[in-house]
Write a structure and sequence with these properties.
CATH class of the largest domain in chain A: Mainly Alpha
Radius of gyration of chain A: 20 Å
Number of domains of chain A: 2
Low-confidence stretches of chain A: 199-209
Shape of chain A: elongated
Oligomer: homodimer
CATH superfamily of the largest domain in chain A: Tetracycline Repressor, domain 2
Number of helices of chain A: 9
Strand content of chain A: under 5%
CATH topology of the largest domain in chain A: Tetracycline Repressor, domain 2
Helix content of chain A: 55-70%
Chain lengths: 209, 209
DNA sequence: CCCTAAAGTTAGCGTTGCTTACATATGTAA
DNA sequence: TTACATATGTAAGCAACGCTAACTTTAGGG
């Protein structure tokens, strides 16, 4: 079962293909990559992938899933770098998200470009939900509230919206990459205005519009 | 030059194809739509499109451009619904953005999924820049600052990040559509915490981290 | 030591984007 | 009107790609 290049059997063709496809998507985009080229990289014939994947979409979902896992892991590592209630914990979480989008823009686009797969594929949803739960946990600790409360979920979602939007806009070139100060000032704006404004405020669910 | 269905010439095949492709993208997605089907809808042969577009990508860019224009126009209409410095102006701007993403999710994804086209296609960038300028103008009026200042641009960008992220996350089903109260509370959170916190604060660019 | 199943290969089919060569309509000028 | 150039359509077909069918090779268990 090892990955011997000489043997008739690849050893772990599924993982080998996923890695090949990942690199090709990063180079050409999700709808441009060719299966035949991934086969050539993995060193197999063009029919081999169909022993492991039903079709092209399943390959894409496999690559997206592994990307979701890497993002989730990166967020976990970033969170554990600082103790609870440390402001750098929230900032680090956002930074990990942005760093991932910057380092793997093609996969990031793929992950959030699969329109219907999020609802149908259970594995994708599970990993995505884990990341969401992590954000909620960190926000809950930060503002000292119950992790499951609607208030925390809403604020975590708001933070996620902000970071997620920033990722897509930077990927689309809406912010100049040759102006490194912008991102720092942006983080400072959110960190100084948004997060402190939350602390101890609106703890009661007042129905004010 | 009229669009007579009986005549040999279509009349305005370019626009007819763009509309047909738009509807197909909305139904099947940007990478799934087939040119032949758009031709059937427009009532021409499969070779006809290539008299107006060089290739598939140019058709997609054409559809994306018209989408950008619709979004820009919707934002303009929303802005003009309220006088300057009215808080509903900023809220309406964001709402127009979200409404567009909800009503045309396929085109919205297409518009922000074209990775390199934003840099290469001048027409796309021009319309996108116009929308960006509009956001900056409204934010500048709202906080009573100079439209071209770095401060305004940063705050406008922060607002855009937030709204843009919310659009993508709702499209990906990250927020339950059967909970209409969520969006209102989200807008209230941003409106009550974020925007008022901006007014008259941090007008001086202090270097505090 | 076979026998089964897993995992690979080769050949080829159908679809699809796109091109080439040809046909038809439109606008302009003699 | 007629002649011509150009724009815009059709028909036929090529090449590439996803995918399948039938066959071959290896791994592993009784």
């Amino acid at each position: 079962m090892e990955s011997n290049p000489k043997s008739y059997h690849h050893g772990d063709l599924r993982e080998g293909l996923l890695e090949a496809i990942r690199s090709l998507i990063e180079r050409d985009g999700p709808d441009k990559f060719r299966i035949a080229e991934a086969c050539r990289i993995a060193g197999v014939s063009t029919a081999a992938p169909y022993k492991h994947f039903s079709d092209r979409d399943e390959m894409l979902r496999g690559v997206a899933l592994r990307g979701m896992m890497r993002l989730r892991d990166a967020m976990r590592v970033a969170v554990e770098a600082y103790p609870p209630r440390d402001p750098r914990r929230v900032a680090g979480l956002g930074k990990a998200y942005v760093d991932f989008a910057r380092s793997e823009p093609g996969i990031f686009r793929l992950m959030f470009g699969l329109a219907e797969s999020h609802h149908s594929d259970d594995a994708l949803r599970r990993v995505s939900d884990a990341s969401e739960a992590l954000v909620e946990r960190v926000v809950a600790e930060h503002i000292g509230a119950d992790p499951g409360s609607d208030d925390v979920r809403l604020r975590a979602y708001a933070l996620w919206c902000f970071v997620h939007g920033h990722c897509f806009l930077t990927l689309d070139g809406k912010v100049d990459p040759h102006k490194p100060g912008v991102e720092d000032r942006l983080l400072a704006l959110v960190g100084d205005r948004m997060l402190p404004a939350w602390e101890g405020a609106d703890r009661n669910p007042s129905g004010a519009a």
